[in-house]
Amino acid sequence: MRYIIVVMCMLAAQAGWAQEWEDRRVFNEGARVALRIISSTDTVLFAPLIQTFVAQNPDISIEYLVTGTADIDRRFRDSPAAFDIAISSAMDLQLKLTNDGFARPLENVAHLSWAEWRQSLFAFTSEPAAIVINRAAFDGFAVPQSRQELIEALRARPDVFRNRVGTYDVRRSGLGYLFATQDARASETFWRLMEVMGALDVRLYCCSGEMIDDLTDGTIAVAYNVLGSYAQARVEALAEAQDALEIILPSDFPTTMMRTAFVSDATTQPDAAELFIQHLVARQSKAGSGPHALPLLNGPQNRAERATIALEPALLTFLDTLKRNKFLEEWESALIQN
Amino acid sequence: MVSGSLRNRLALTLIGGAAVLALVLFVVVRNYAVRVAQQGQDNILVASATSMLDAAAIRDGVVEVDIPYAAFSMLSTPADDRVFYAIFQDGTLLSGYGDLSFSTGPAGANRQFQTRQMRGARVRQISASRTLIGANKRIEVQIVLAQTQDALSETLDQISRNAALLGIGFFTLAAALSFWASLATLGQLNKLTTSVTRRGPQDLSPFKKPVPREMAPLVTSLNSLMGRLDHSLSQSEDFIAEAAHRVRTPLATVRSYAEATLQRVDKEENREAMRSMVKAIDESSRAAGQLLDHAMITFRADHLEREDIDLVDLVRDLVLRLTPVAEMKDLSLSLLGDQKVPYAGDPILIQNAVRNLIDNAMKYSPPDSAIDVTVVAGAPARVTVFDRGPGFPPAEIATLTGRFQRGQNAANTIGSGLGLTIAQDVATAHGGCIDLSNRAEGGACVTLSL
Prior knowledge:
The complex is a heterodimer. Helices cover 43% and strands 18% of the residues of chain A. Chain A is an alpha/beta fold. Chain B is an alpha+beta fold. The longest helix of chain B has 49 residues, at 6-54. Chain B has a 5-stranded antiparallel β-sheet with strand order 4-3-7-6-5, covered by helices on one side. The chains are: A alpha/beta, B alpha+beta.
């Protein structure tokens, strides 16, 4: 009986953990200095960076905790001392945390001025939002290359796409909200696309991963504003996905996000944390420093071609309560039509 | 005698002034820059707050503020300044940062600037408001917008550095100019000094070269001083000539009368008295002559004018003139030495000196003895007079050239005590000296080295 209780408690703890974090992994356990990183990047994509770091710094161990971008913001504000480094793809939330004084300025990190803010927030990837399609749904039809063409394709065969288009639920996903607001800022096409998708009973996702899962197995035919890097990783990892998926960077205005990292102002390990940021920035800034799971900053494409979201105070705009409420209201009225 | 330096005083005053000016320049430029930079930040804050207020509207009785993306975008700075904002509806926070509070400006002003500390940084804050008129109520929307001043202080640091450089540059230039100006000004004074120093001893003519207006009074005073000096010098020269004439002529007349009377007087005691008289007159005449000679020599020596002469010619002339006198005393006077001794000097002075030496020799020589005058060329040229007299008292050789000094063995001889003094003065004026000695075989030897 006692044994069963212990097992149940363990299971409960496990479940609690699982609820609390999407993923948790400790690298180089037992080292003298321990760093806690809270991140929105899947462990599999980020692990190579940590492994090369702990190989160079054997006295530092890293606990890597994965959760959603909105959750990172919430948890970090609740207990800034609990984490040494925060990594997120939601640039606006990261910038607001920095603006609010949660980030520590790092003197010894040399970085391009457009890729850092206040010498505290450092960008280390360039990742475009992509349209990803399941090739099967477009067999014999032209593959749309822009939002306009996607609208036309969806309108042409509503029976094929009904309940088979997906995008971020911007109410839950920080990154989805960032992409949506930036798209809305850039063009009216976004709202027409949302209306078309709303009319087709769009499926809403919290994360890129799940969207790609559903795309791969054919549950949905089109996903809008998926992180191209995640889709690419899946294509490279799975032969099945390679056949099924096609990644399209919209030719009209590809919205590009930069993943950012900062060191908590309340960290107890400022030197180790700064060392990690240096490592991160250095490895992600230049090609040829080994295999890269994450896209490099500046990426293989020319930066000028893509509309990279700028690290500037303007990112605070859509985080304003009034502005956010208004935006969500419009988004809901466009997308959720029943 | 020297109280401070005019140049230093001038340069110090100018440099001090330049330093003060440079400091003033720095402070003024910096303050101006601070105002301009602050004005720049304020203008952007106004624009941003205004664009936010403009986006406020009442919809269905609810205040909506659709913040334009540009409102925060325009607040981007090179130093990535932090931005804080708050939106209030009639004093109640609608959204933004709760630690900002609206501050009402003076009545009538619809915006108010403040500089204050917030979250560990200095921020510039604007409070602005706008009244929205709804269907049945008036709502005041208030916006507080704050921005840190990192970029501003970076700019100010840079401006301060530039202003400091400007000030230092200005100071350096001004200091160099002050040195140059003081040198140039005092150069005029130096030029005047040099032309005064370079003047010949007789040149008392006024300065005619143009001088700066400020120095004109000095030159005028100098010229008038020199005019008076010239006048009094020529007066004293005239006086000497006049005195010589006035004293010598009556004495000569008295002497000739005494001589004539002596011829007519038969009584031995009267003749004796007359001879004493003539002797006294001779002594007076000689003394007066020597006094005048001395005065004349002192004057001429002060204003020595050299001309090219032949010493042998000069001395021969003198010997020929004195030979009759010598013969009266049964002395033989002979000129020895080089044939020609060219020399640059004042002939009147040299003649006077040599004549005094020969006179002395004649006075102290015993009858039927010889006096030798030797002129030898060289550097210095020398004129030596030998006699066969008693010589100088060895104890007094050093003091005999003093004024009115006479040897102890000279009490019975007519003399004023000025002869050697005159010779000495002449030698000194020509940069030479006089040397007294006694000859081993008896007699004095005086050497005039020129």
